[in-house]
Write a structure and sequence with these properties.
With 283 residues, the protein is mainly α. It folds into 2 domains: 10-17 and 25-76, no CATH class; 86-282, Cytochrome Bc1 Complex, Chain C, CATH 1.20.810.10. It is built from 10 helices and no strands. The protein has helices spanning 43-66, 69-76, 90-109, 119-128, 133-160, 169-190, 196-210, 216-224, 231-263, 269-282. Helix 4 packs across helix 5 (133-160) and helix 5 runs antiparallel to helix 6.
Amino acid sequence: MSRLTPPLPKFLRPAPSRPERDGRPGRTGAPNGKPGEGAKPKRGKQLREGATEGSAKVVGYLDERTGASPFLRGFLYRKVPKGSSWFYTLGSATMFAFISQAVTGIFLAMYYVPDVNRAYDSVAHITHEVFLGELVRGMHRWGSTVMIILIFLHMARTFVFGAYKYPREIQWVIGVVLLVLTLAMGFSGYLLPFDQRSLWATVVGVNINASAPIMGPFIADFLRGGAEFNTATLARYYSLHMLLLPGLIGAMIGAHLYLVAKLGITAPPWLRADKKELAKEEI
């Protein structure tokens, strides 16, 4: 095993045998450590030891066939720089918001109908008739706003702390792509209730894209599904919102987490400044 690989956590290490002391019973409960002698261990202790042993066997079975333990130990037990604070949790909070959006979106998709004549009624059915439908829809609706705010705060923290510099340039580029994809998710999902507000807000957004030079008209035609808004527009936005964009975001998050585990977390700028001053004083 490589020296850089962190050790196994304590709960996965085999327990060492306990030595006998002054004739006291060993692990087997016998005075001389022999099985079958002395008092029997308690039922609760047996169950705990059996559960621990069974869990260790399952983990060992999976690790032997996947070889995932070095990666997981390096990812979960990596070193964190001194001076880390709650600012470093903004990325994890953004990922949690995305997972929440994915879970609530799956439940909403079970009842939503992407048809221009039935979309609004299906949303009303979710809100007023489905059990906890209003709660799930509210979580999804406000969760999109929370995710956008969190990803902006995460990008701002990364920029202020200088975490976009060498050797983390690719992480920064992936983060920018994730920001664009998140905004696209919010834009594509806004049309799905298909009421007057969402329809005309989408018309304004598409017209803004159409005003871009050279590629603007082509982008607008793609977003509309033709020269004008039609029945294919809602289906296109639904497929983008449910299939393409979540898949891209998931792939980008995976690449982002891999680079975070490989390159580590950058220290706060004030800590790096202190190290530079100490180095100058030594020189």
